[in-house]
Amino acid sequence: MRVNVTVNGEQRQADDVWEGESLLFVLRERLGLPGSKNACEQGECGSCTVYLDDVPVCACLVAAGQAQDREVRTVEGLADGERLDPVQEAFVEAGAVQCGFCTPGLVVQAHALLDRVPNPSDPEIREALAGNLCRCTGYEKILDAVRLAAARR
Ligand code: FES
Ligand code: FES
């Protein structure tokens, strides 16, 4: 089947998509957007988090066909040209990135949190990021990054 979807503000099209194919596969393998990561492919780690019509979702759990005629925003779509989004900048500055595999999903999830709750408490940050696993950082630097981004936005 053919899937038409708006990705990061651009109308995109993928052909010969299999009915069981995930949105994550289409983004990474067909549309050349490898920012969203594929770690567990079963909704457990959050590394594939993207916005679907402004709601953060695990792209590995969304069938590509469900994105038909909808809007997707990936981590690649957060920056304004060469200028990083404040959340991306904060992750870099706070040292919240080690291997980086979890980072795109955490950045999108943190971005969505700060849109909803501009000054979140620590429990609110922890709850919002609870579905995003990181095996490197121990999470403290990630919390620092979200606090820093909140202070700057
Ligand atoms: S790859 Fe989608 S939740 Fe882990
Ligand atoms: S930085 Fe490696 S998994 Fe989070």
From TrEMBL:
<dbReference type="GO" id="GO:0016491">
    <property type="term" value="F:oxidoreductase activity"/>
</dbReference>
<dbReference type="InterPro" id="IPR051452">
    <property type="entry name" value="Diverse_Oxidoreductases"/>
</dbReference>
<keyword id="KW-0479">Metal-binding</keyword>
<keyword id="KW-0001">2Fe-2S</keyword>
<dbReference type="InterPro" id="IPR006058">
    <property type="entry name" value="2Fe2S_fd_BS"/>
</dbReference>
<keyword id="KW-0560">Oxidoreductase</keyword>
<dbReference type="InterPro" id="IPR036010">
    <property type="entry name" value="2Fe-2S_ferredoxin-like_sf"/>
</dbReference>
<dbReference type="InterPro" id="IPR001041">
    <property type="entry name" value="2Fe-2S_ferredoxin-type"/>
</dbReference>
<feature type="domain" description="2Fe-2S ferredoxin-type">
    <location>
        <begin position="1"/>
        <end position="78"/>
    </location>
</feature>
<dbReference type="InterPro" id="IPR012675">
    <property type="entry name" value="Beta-grasp_dom_sf"/>
</dbReference>
<dbReference type="InterPro" id="IPR036884">
    <property type="entry name" value="2Fe-2S-bd_dom_sf"/>
</dbReference>
<protein>
    <submittedName>
        <fullName>(2Fe-2S)-binding protein</fullName>
    </submittedName>
</protein>
<dbReference type="Pfam" id="PF00111">
    <property type="entry name" value="Fer2"/>
</dbReference>
<keyword id="KW-0411">Iron-sulfur</keyword>
<keyword id="KW-0408">Iron</keyword>
<dbReference type="InterPro" id="IPR002888">
    <property type="entry name" value="2Fe-2S-bd"/>
</dbReference>
<dbReference type="GO" id="GO:0046872">
    <property type="term" value="F:metal ion binding"/>
</dbReference>
<dbReference type="Pfam" id="PF01799">
    <property type="entry name" value="Fer2_2"/>
</dbReference>
<dbReference type="GO" id="GO:0051537">
    <property type="term" value="F:2 iron, 2 sulfur cluster binding"/>
</dbReference>
